[in-house]
Amino acid sequence: MINPSQGNHVTTQFFPGFRTSLVEVAPGVQINTAVGGNGPPLLLLHGHPQTHVIWHKVAAALCDRFTVVTCDLRGYGDSSKPRGDASHASYSKRTMATDVLKVMQSLGFARFRVMAHDRGARVAHRLAADHPEAVQRLVLLDIAPTLAMYEKTTEAFARAYWHWFFLIQPAPMPERLIEADPAAYITDVMGSRSAGLAPFDPRALKEYQRCLALPGAAHGLCEDYRASASIDLEHDRIDLERGYRLPMPLLVLWGGQGVVQRCFEPLREWRQVAGDVSGEALACGHYIPEEAPELLLARALPFLAVETP
């Protein structure tokens, strides 16, 4: 079911010409979605602690080649924020991947390309693993596989990605602390990376702050991370044990000034779980779509434009 979205003001401001909707993907769960452009379908997924607005600097160029579908993950932005439970299954990447698959199917797209950043890239990884028939080509931005990152955690990584270990603490402690000042959480977390707050449009920062202040947003954000440290690792280990490898072409890009570059070997890690992997570090930090939109387009567009049978 597709309903008119309440986020039209956001779409008009950041994505002129896009149309918005709330797509019902499960009882009581709606995913805020914006669609624009023409051509083969391309799904864009955002990361923490942001929304689909992260793509506002590259959307116009992508729309010249693709029908662009961008949405807020469950728990984020103007999408639904269901309560989690002890298993964290409602925020597993398997569940979140099913959400976005249903969004694409509701729009009539059975097969599509995906480009995703940070948390969205973890959803995209699970989407590609569970539904390889749907994902034609995949671009993942500034992550290594979740299982590898947890299993190879060092002191340097834990200090830099402290929020991974804060957000997984039992409810309601981290939620209560975020809700005390959600605007500060946005600027403190995002501003602590290599580029500071300079790359971000002030309007985008205000939008991220608005969304994190919505009821249930802090809980959704925490549940996303709690799932990644529990049920998601179970799913990843099953794939590893059965020798499953992603079959579609995969492009991995990461920030040369970021934590993933310092603490991991992204290409090596992705080649453990996928068969056709290419990629490189870009001259930027973590928030690639906003820090280095031109570099991202120069590397991702040729890859995404290739026709895949």
Output the strand order for the largest sheet. 1-2-3-5-4-6-7-8-9
Mean pLDDT: 96
Query: How many structural domains can be distinguished in the coordinates?
Result: 1
Helical fraction = 40-55%
Most strands sheet: 9 strands, mixed
- What is the CATH H-level superfamily? Alpha/Beta hydrolase fold, catalytic domain
**CATH domain fold name:** Rossmann fold
Helix tally? 16
Low-confidence runs (pLDDT<50, min 5 residues)? none
- Proportion of β residues? 15-25%
Spatial separation of the terminal alpha carbons: 30 Å
Structural class: alpha/beta
| CATH class identity | Alpha Beta
Radius of gyration: 18 Å
Overall strand count: 9
CATH architecture: 3-Layer(aba) Sandwich
Which overall shape is indicated by the principal axes computed on the Cα atoms? globular
The string of secondary-structure elements, in order, is: EHEEEHEHEHEHHHHHHHHEHHEHH
InterPro entries: AB_hydrolase_1 (IPR000073), AB_hydrolase_fold (IPR029058), AB_hydrolase_sf (IPR050266)
GO molecular function: monoacylglycerol lipase activity
Pfam families: Abhydrolase_1
Domain AB hydrolase-1: 40-172
